[in-house]
Specification:
three-stranded antiparallel β-sheet
Length: about 160
């Protein structure tokens, strides 16, 4: 009987936002529950929610993140990942998309034209002082574009006069 009351309470507490991340209040409540009850609650938590809990779940299910994010918001997700210096997350995104980003030509951002998207995210990591992300981007760029890839950066400022 007590377990049913706990389960019903947890079901009411669990609120998931638009990309499936856990509400911070849930973690606060789960910490105070006994381990026996957590054993019963765990199957009710969706995989989309578990992705955000720790690295093990993220490495197993990181492809779910791309499905949860709207396609037109995916680039802003990448930019926010770099701004917040989430290097672990960026490493997965980079490995999945590096070939596509290198083949992208002339990426426009903030009145500038970048040779490809990889140069842009490198620029963005420098601008936001994201050192961990910058190291990952540089390592990947050296493997894909060559050792002196940073010398080939071409950005043009294009502000239109009306």
């Amino acid at each position: 009987m007590i377990i049913k009351i706990y389960l019903n309470t947890i079901k009411r507490i669990i609120k998931i936002d638009y990309i499936g991340m856990i509400n911070k209040d849930i973690i606060k409540y789960l910490v105070y529950l006994p381990e026996d009850i957590l054993f019963y609650i765990f199957p009710f938590i969706s995989i989309k929610t578990l992705v955000a809990i720790n690295k093990n779940y993220y490495t197993k299910n990181h492809k779910l993140i791309k499905q949860m994010i709207l396609p037109h918001r995916y680039e802003s997700y990448i930019r926010n990942t770099i701004r917040k210096d989430h290097a672990y997350t960026l490493s997965f995104v980079l490995n999945e998309n590096v070939d596509k980003w290198v083949s992208m030509s002339k990426y426009y951002y903030n009145h500038q034209i970048f040779t490809n998207y990889l140069y842009f995210i490198s620029y963005l990591s420098i601008e936001n002082n994201s050192t961990n992300c910058r190291k990952i981007i540089e390592d990947k760029a050296q493997r894909v574009l060559g050792k002196k890839w940073h010398k080939k950066v071409k950005t043009m400022k294009c502000k239109w006069n009306i």
